[in-house]
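Lab notebook, bench 4. The sequencing result for the construct came back, and we need a structural model before the next group meeting so we can plan mutations. Quick request posted to the team channel:

Model the 3D structure of this chain.
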Amino acid sequence: MRTALLRGLPAMLLSVLSLTISPPAQAAETVPLVEAVARLPLATESRHGYTREAFVRREVALFERNRPSEEEHRALL
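Done. Here's the predicted structure in token form:
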């Protein structure tokens, strides 16, 4: 009897779960991508919080990370 209950438990849980989960919401309207982009609201550009120096430091760090060190460079020669 215990094995029958254990075998039936996953099926029962799945059936209960399917009753509690709502179906996915449907889009109210389907439009082509170009039209959807055209509908997006426009706003003025905000540079608040942007610092050019921080961006440059990140670029340099990424560049140096991918470049071999002087010792590695000498070993390759």
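The longest helix spans residues 2-20.
Will bring this to the meeting.
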